[in-house]
């Protein structure tokens, strides 16, 4: 006797195939979503993603400035024109990096299955992401891990504008403006090159200022060696104003009335802060901090004395944010010549946020040997 064998009908077979396929797809999508959330949990999603390179970019940290970017498994060249640093959400530089693109002077082309060195500006923390901007106006993301604790340099990451004449030239690091010199000579003082202002017509000026520089607090650090108080008064170290009362700018200068460093924020009713006495004909380490909450602080040091809080702390709830677009001017103000600095300014740096006394001392210690 033979058993009666009946095969599965085509309809039932089709249904089983569909059910199994749905289950597999669901599992894969769930796993992929979990993986993506885990990897991107500390970072903002890129504006655009080039799927040809997704997951195919790897890197290896070589130093605090160089990383090796590998274009793995792709048949296409990767043409990098710039990059964005993506810090973790609890890093206070997160919002700044979110709006900052570092454009390369020359595109970096990485061929299929090739690797090239990419020099980045700084390491904000031990682990962060980089969004690589391509010539297709798309971003490709890769994670970076610091090679050592010495690679991490939050101070460098905070640097917004760097006027540093160490090598006999002037640079503006906002990425948007170029400083234009009028009657400013570059002279060597000790082992440092210094911009010398004549006290009457000398000016370093930008066409405009990115207003985000002055938002959410900032710190100005400078070495100065004034010869006199200037042509009339208030020799400007840094000025971002029109000079008119009530405008939304500010200035940082020397004040002959009190032999002091001085700050005036016009937008909030001429709130001012004065420092202890400065020395004409000598090097002074001058620092201004303005918080987004309420405080103006001035610190002063010299070649032998580390910076200390020497200003009268000014507190006002009106100082919420400075949003000026007035031209940024070093050694003068943009609309007049009655506040010209007379002397030398070899270094002026603007940092995002309010630096601590420990950080200011670190800058003082690393730069004072270059100006004596």
Question: What report would you give on this structure?
Answer:
By secondary structure, this protein is mainly beta. The protein has 2 domains: 95 residues, Sandwich (Immunoglobulin-like); 217 residues, Jelly Rolls (Sandwich), CATH 2.60.120.200. The protein is built from 4 helices and 23 strands. The radius of gyration is 28 Å and the shape is elongated.
What tags apply to this protein structure?
single chain; 372 residues; Immunoglobulin-like; Jelly Rolls; elongated
Q: How widely separated are the two ends?
A: 112 Å
Name the CATH class of the largest domain. Mainly Beta
CATH topology of the largest domain: Jelly Rolls
Assign a percent range to the helix content.
10-25%
Roughly how many Å is the radius of gyration? Answer: 28 Å
Itemize the secondary structure elements and their pairings:
Blueprint: H1 10-40, E1 57-61, E2 66-71, E3 78-86, H2 94-98, E4 102-110, E5 115-119, E6 127-134, E7 139-145, H3 154-158, E8 159-164, E9 180-182, E10 184-189, E11 192-198, E12 203-205, E13 218-226, E14 235-240, E15 250-255, E16 260-265, E17 271-277, E18 284-290, E19 295-301, E20 308-309, E21 314-315, E22 329-330, E23 342-352, H4 357-367
Antiparallel strand pairs: 1-2, 2-5, 3-4, 3-6, 6-7, 8-23, 9-12, 10-11, 11-23, 12-22, 13-18, 13-23, 14-15, 14-22, 15-16, 16-17, 18-19, 19-20, 19-21
